[in-house]
Automatic annotation (TrEMBL):
Tagged with keyword Disulfide bond: yes
Domain EGF-like: 103-135
Cysteines joined through disulfide linkages: C107-C117, C125-C134
Coiled coil segments of this chain: none
Protein name: Uncharacterized protein
Signal peptide stretch: 1-22
Keywords on record: Calcium, Coiled coil, Disulfide bond, EGF-like domain, Signal
This protein's GO CC annotations: cell surface; extracellular region
Gene Ontology molecular function terms on file: calcium ion binding; signaling receptor binding
Superkingdom assignment: Eukaryota
EMI domain residues: 27-104
Amino acid sequence: MQRFQNETVLIVFMICLDVTTSLIKPGRRVCPISRASSQVVPSPQTYIRPFIIPCNGDKCGNSSRVVYKTAVRTVFYRQVVHDAVRKCCPGWTNFEPNDELCMKPVCKSECLNGGSCRGPDYCACPQNFTGPLCELDVNECDTGNHKCQQLCNNTIGGYSCSCYDGFRPTNDRECE
């Protein structure tokens, strides 16, 4: 009969890590997030193992006897490890997937009419548009923010000037 002094029990766990979170450096717009992961840890374990030994005519006759010996085996157990990973804070992201910083603001809806996302859900609008998404045309004629001598006609993204009946335009904004 064979004797085994060491036995190995192997349990394999796969741990998947989000590689992009580990590349982000600490700093502005970076939020630490607590994460629990598991690691497989080997551990020696002693146990009492029975061995059957034939007597071969000694004190126990022609039968066999059982001898108990201490043996060691390696067991693997799963250990939960808590660590902090870094991710971009809500409203921010990377310019490129492997960037180390979170400098690109995120607008849930697209900024319109040439507006640009300048902060989380904040659109910076060009001069003639307003609204959360730059979706509203500024009426320069109503606000008095125009240079027309007589009549102001609002257009999308701007305005045009015209003259009263009997007058004619001399240039873009004046009448005679």
